[in-house]
């Protein structure tokens, strides 16, 4: 098989593994399931409040940002637990930093949400 078709096959395989990871996240990771539920609620609210196209763009971006950050946080937590299952100050620090990254995303998502929805109530 030539290098070019190998490249394409490897890319297809990579997408398959990524889709598998995506499925694991949305079906078995409680923190991701919670964020997906919040995303669905915000989507319903978006339709009910008839937000504009630009507001949809920001809302979808915020939802994506939170889900990506939360997913990477989950991956780092899993890796930390695998590398060092016992209690260790450094593992705690790494997990806290990783959770902090997800918190960062959540703060900005909340700010975006407030900017979109507060004017609709005043
Ligand atoms: N092995 C460890 N060593 C030191 N501190 C830890 C360790 N595991 C967890 N911690 C501390 O507990 C916090 C929460 O841990 P973690 O993110 O693994 O969530 P959990 O509550 O244990 O499980 P889950 O995220 O599945 O609900 C971490 O941010 C860290 O401060």
Could you please describe the fold and organization of this structure?
This protein is mainly α and 122 residues long. The protein has one domain: Helix Hairpins (Orthogonal Bundle). Helices cover 89% and strands 0% of the residues. The chain has four helices and no strands. It has helices spanning 3-28, 30-48, 53-83, 89-121. Helix 2 runs antiparallel to helix 3 (53-83). It is flat, with a radius of gyration of 19 Å. The mean pLDDT is 96. Bound molecules: adenosine-5'-triphosphate.
Please specify the SSE layout and strand pairing.
Layout: H1 3-28, H2 30-48, H3 53-83, H4 89-121
Helix pairs in contact: 1-2, 2-3, 3-4
Give a concise summary:
The protein is mainly α and 122 residues long. The protein has four helices and no strands.
* CATH fold group: Helix Hairpins
CATH architecture: Orthogonal Bundle
Bound ligands, named by name, code or SMILES: adenosine-5'-triphosphate
- The percent range for helix content is over 70%
User: Per the principal axes of the C-alpha atoms, what is the gross shape?
Assistant: flat
Q: CA-to-CA gap between the ends?
A: 65 Å
H/E topology pattern: HHHH
Q: Which secondary-structure class do the elements indicate?
A: mainly alpha
For the biggest sheet, the summary is: none
Q: For this structure, what is the CATH class?
A: Mainly Alpha
Low-pLDDT parts are: none
Strand content: under 5%
| Gyration radius from CA atoms, angstroms | 19 Å
In total, the number of domains comes to 1
Q: What's the mean pLDDT score?
A: 96
| Oligomeric nature of the chains | single chain
Question: What is the number of beta strands?
Answer: 0
Separate helix tally: 4
